[in-house]
Design goal:
Length: about 160
């Protein structure tokens, strides 16, 4: 396997490990969320940041793949949306789809939420907005991990 593919594989696996650690931290924070205390906003901000970081970690992997195999990331204002969509494309002679459309659809909710987190004050966060993301987190993480493991297997096969 050539050095470029070995390095890409190692970087993807490292990011995936960090995302998995983040998933554990998110569960601990949600478990400890106070029912009604003055500190609730601190927990909500922590949860929001972890959900934000989940998608950011996913996008780091997409960026690595796009830079190494596709010649770079999209250069438009909507590049985050386009990058996610590109990960669902099978590109002949370059790579298979990184994500299923179902997984991309799940992740798009986290991408959208990340945009919200970046553009509001923490005290404006509402648990009702985050609840669907929390409820679906395990499914999204599992689908993402499955797709990424399949892609890593592809990388390991292309240049034995």
């Amino acid at each position: 396997m050539n050095d470029k593919i070995l390095e890409l594989t190692a970087e993807i696996e490292d990011e995936l490990r960090l995302i998995q650690e983040l998933g554990i931290a998110l569960k601990v924070t949600v478990r400890d969320l106070p029912v009604a205390t003055r500190q609730e906003s601190v927990y909500l901000e922590s949860i929001a940041l972890k959900l934000h970081n989940f998608y950011t970690g996913c996008e780091r992997i997409f960026t690595l793949i796009s830079q190494e195999l596709n010649g770079g990331i999209p250069q438009s204002q909507d590049w985050h949306i386009r990058l996610l969509r590109k990960m669902t494309l099978n590109i002949d002679s370059i790579r298979p789809a990184v994500l299923s459309r179902k997984t991309a659809s799940l992740l798009d909710e986290y991408r959208s939420f990340r945009h919200v987190v970046r553009h509001i004050y923490g005290f404006e966060l509402k648990l009702t907005r985050m609840s669907p993301l929390l409820d679906n987190f395990d499914n999204a993480l599992e689908a993402f991990e499955t797709d990424i493991h399949s892609f890593i297997a592809f990388l390991k096969r292309i240049d034995p």
